[in-house]
Design goal:
Blueprint lengths: L1 H16 L3 E4 L2 E7 L6 E8 L9 E5 L7 E5 L5 E5 L9 E5 L5 E5 L20 E4 L4 H16 L6
Antiparallel strand pairs: 1-9, 2-3, 3-6, 4-5, 4-7, 7-8
Helix pairs in contact: 1-2
């Protein structure tokens, strides 16, 4: 019984003293029209931590809610160069999908947009990402619950 009591008390202490660090990271993208012989667009996408959004799916989404058109995936540096399909118009949006909770939507830049003024409309909603000791308090709660169950008075049989 004493080892269980000690583990329960240790769990209670971990609830009080464990540092909890939870950071969220959003996806941030920029889209610009390249000048040259082709009418290409250059996309660069990264997380707020600065890490590139590798292998993120890039799609264009019609304004009427129809099916999105898959254009490709970002490279190891979070970059992707593409040309719009003929059916896409200015009202369509570019979607960057780097996994659950990491989506970015960008408006298409004007045909006259200069490379120095990239279009950027980010509507990503980051989920919190637990790091470090963040999992210790929930384990402490379980330990305290187990301790309470052990110390509960029992009826004699």
């Amino acid at each position: 019984m004493k080892p269980l009591l000690c583990s329960g008390l240790l769990g209670l202490v971990s609830l009080v003293v464990a540092p909890v660090q939870v950071r969220a990271h959003a996806i941030e993208s920029s889209l610009e029209r390249l000048t040259g012989l082709t009418d290409s667009l250059s996309l660069e996408s990264q997380f707020s931590s600065g890490e590139p959004a590798r292998d993120a799916a890039v799609r264009i989404v019609p304004p009427d809610g129809g099916p999105a058109i898959e254009l490709g995936r970002t490279d190891a540096g979070g970059r992707f160069v593409f040309t719009l399909p003929p059916q896409a118009s200015r009202q369509w949006e570019v979607q960057v999908d780097a996994g659950p909770g990491h989506r970015d939507y960008l408006e298409l830049p004007e045909a006259t947009a200069t490379p120095s003024l990239p279009a950027r409309v980010s509507r990503s909603h980051p989920y919190a990402q637990a790091e470090g000791w963040a999992f210790v308090p929930p384990l402490g709660v379980l330990a305290v619950a187990g301790l309470a169950g052990m110390l509960r008075p029992r009826r004699p049989s």
